[in-house]
Amino acid sequence: MKKLLLLLPFGLLLSACSNDFEVTAPWKEIPVVYGILSPQDSAHYIRIEKAFIDPERSAFEIAQIADSLYYPENSITVWMERIDNQSRIQLQRVDGALEGYPRDAGVFAGQPNWLYKLNPTGNFSLEPGKSYRLVIERADGKPDVTAETTLPKDFFITKPNLSTQVPVIGFEKNVPGTPIEWRTDVNGYFFNITFRIRYHDKNANGTIAATHELVWDAAKNVERDSLSIGNGVYLASKEIPKNSFFNFLAQNLQRPVGNMYREFQACDLIISGGGREIKEYLQTANANSGLTGAETFPNYTNISEGYGIFTGKNQTTVNNIRITTRTVDSMNVSSITDTLRFRY
User: Considering only CA atoms, which of 119, 113, 110 is closest in space to residue 99?
Assistant: First the structure.
């Protein structure tokens, strides 16, 4: 029995996932679908491919032949439907490399990199909390291939308290960590916490010499609580250690030259996440792992026929948070950051 390897490249908010599957029926085409929808994106891309075995050639050889990976252009029509108002829009076949998304080097043919592009227009839109259906119509009369997902609603950040007129956040020497806490609905499962940190380089006389921005991936793959706190709301939280902030700055900054010093301007806190279907994928794998696990892993998919994952994500951003003066004081007495010359 030949084995093909399906790679699902979950980047941004989510861990890389891989899935092995056995193809037992020679010459039977098997749809392979991957897609993540986000209301923050202006364009969306769905990967739709096929898998089959050849009794005479290896799967690795077939994987290098583009015509063996993709459906002919006129053999499928791809639609996205918004379930609540029954609106739908047709996706267009594009070469991902020309869209700025070349395929990663690997066992699969890199060119062309056919994707199906969605540009929401007219009465079709992507909104948090709404459900969407992917429909792949096949010209040979076979049943449609479908998948559904619901985008997570917007996340509500409760810690730190950012509702004040000038929201602040601190990483201080007498506090082991800074708690980040937010609320999500049932469709949000895994989350990334990111900070965009802006600061000035200043001359000795106080004039601004330059302004910079650093992007800090403070935490990845944070899982929300499994039980609702009521009304379909779930709690997610993560404590960011003080030294994580200090170490990030020390690894990305050098001592200022001459008499120059630095001053924080502000930072943005970004919570991104989703992936209810990814949670179910991981549960399927974990249920069959370990010494007592099944010999063969079952294959999770939420595609009506074939393999793959169709899911959604969302993102909430709070801009212009001030970093506390106590944080700067703590940095100036820490051996990790005392040479960076931050002032307030």
Answer: 113
pLDDT given for residue 165 in this prediction: 84
Please give, one letter per residue, the 3-state secondary structure of 230-276.
ECCEEEEEEEEEHHHHHHHHHHHCCCCCCCCEEEEEEEEEEEEEEEH
CA distance 22 to 4: 7
- The predicted-structure confidence for 1-25, as pLDDT tens digits, reads as follows 333 333 333 333 333 333 343 444 4
Phi, psi of 326 (to 5 degrees): -65, -30
Kindly report whether the global pTM for this prediction surpasses the value 0.85.
no
pLDDT, mean of residues 61-84: 81
Q: How far apart are CA 303 and CA 36, in angstroms?
A: 13
**Per the structure block, which two tokens stand in for 114?**
């056919």
Q: What pLDDT is stored for residue 1 in this prediction?
A: 32
Question: 231 with 185: CB under 8 angstroms?
Answer: no
Tell me the average pLDDT of the chain.
84
Separation of alpha carbons 25 and 310, rounded Å: 24
Please report the pLDDT score of residue 297 as a whole number. Answer: 44
b/e per residue 65-100 (b: at least 16 CB within 10 A): eeebbbbeeeebebbbbbeeeeeebebebbebeeee
The verdict on whether omega for the bond into residue 120 sits within 30 degrees of 0, i.e. cis, is no
Which two tokens mark 264? Answer: 């924080």
Q: Residue 105 has what pLDDT?
A: 53
Residue 296, Cβ density class (10 Å: 0-12 exposed, 13-18 middle, ≥19 buried): exposed
Task: Report yes or no: 328 and 237 within 8 Å, Cβ to Cβ.
Answer: no
The yes-or-no verdict on residue 213 having pLDDT over 70 is: yes
Distance CA(281)–CA(23), nearest Å, equals 19
